[in-house]
Specification:
The chain is an alpha+beta fold. The chain contains seven helices and eleven strands.
């Protein structure tokens, strides 16, 4: 599932491409039936909170998108491409019909692990976007959007502080690894950041929330406030420090980007202990039993 860095990145790109302009919208395969509510209206702004995207068309017309596990956008310039695949929604501006497409201008943004951030269009060049496979794509009223936002926890990418989260964690008997995935406490943190933030804090994922001191929680929050904006640049989530990688110079190789996430069965970069994996609350958890001893 895309994490907060990717959602905020899409919001920034789509805001630069479409905000302040009339936007055409359709659902060419009939699964998005409210296109006429926003088609041709000016997009006022784009919003991102946690893993939720909002496109504000004014007058109680907010397009809500939650990508879920399978959702992703395609974007490009030039005329609209032919409709292919399970296309839920398209948005385009006047640039989409002004000139013929140039080969190579349309590029599908792959999952973060396959995308090195190169070869992308600048946001201002984007003329159209296509949405496939989202968990939700529907029109919200302002009231419904505000109700959603109020249910979510603070978001490091929106400049929020951890104050609303701290007292709730301090009372919880749930493992801290489970709490980090709870969007009502840590909006935007997903499985990758959960594993890596805990490792960087040298904190056992099984420690109950109430057993984690406030200083450690604030340190994790501060770390998220550095790592998550960095991951907005090219969608790669890189959490390892150069000194800890086998190749200490240059860009981190794919297999060196994370300390523990999806490195189960491999030696920890720091201590050499085999990284472990087990399921927690329906998602795979990765940790080093030495560096993150209970």
């Amino acid at each position: 599932m895309p994490e907060g860095n990717e959602i905020h990145r899409w919001a920034a790109r789509h805001g630069a491409a479409f905000a302040g302009k009339p936007v055409r919208v359709d659902g060419p395969q009939g699964r998005f039936t409210d296109a006429d509510v926003i088609d041709g209206r000016k997009l006022e702004k784009t919003m991102a909170v946690g893993k939720h995207l909002g496109y504000d068309f004014g007058r109680d017309r907010i397009l809500h998108v939650h990508l879920g596990l399978q959702g992703d956008f395609t974007e490009g310039s030039g005329p609209l491409p032919e409709v292919k695949g399970a296309l839920r929604l398209r948005m385009w501006n006047a640039q989409a019909v002004k000139r013929p497409a140039v080969p190579g201008e349309s590029k599908r943004h792959a999952w973060y692990s396959e995308d090195d951030g190169t070869g992308h269009l600048e946001p201002e060049q984007v003329a159209w976007v296509e949405l496939r496979g989202p968990m939700d794509c529907s029109i919200y009223t302002n009231e419904k959007w505000e109700a959603l936002v109020n249910k979510l926890g603070p978001d490091p990418l929106n400049g929020d502080g951890p104050e609303r989260m701290l007292p709730r964690v301090a009372k919880s008997r749930k493992p801290i690894a489970e709490l980090l995935m709870d969007q009502t406490m840590f909006a935007g943190v997903g499985n990758i950041f959960r594993a890596e933030l805990l490792y960087r804090a040298r904190l056992s994922p099984f420690r109950m929330g109430r057993e984690v001191d406030e200083t450690t929680l604030r340190s994790i929050w501060k770390d998220a406030g550095v790592l998550m904006p960095a991951a907005m640049v090219d969608r790669r989530i890189i959490t390892t420090k150069p000194a800890d990688r086998p190749h200490k110079r240059g860009m981190a190789l794919k297999e060196e980007a994370h300390y523990v996430y999806r490195r189960n069965g491999l030696p920890c970069f720091i201590c050499g202990t085999v990284v472990k994996k087990q399921e927690m609350a329906g998602r795979n958890l990765f940790w080093c039993p030495t560096c993150q001893a209970e």
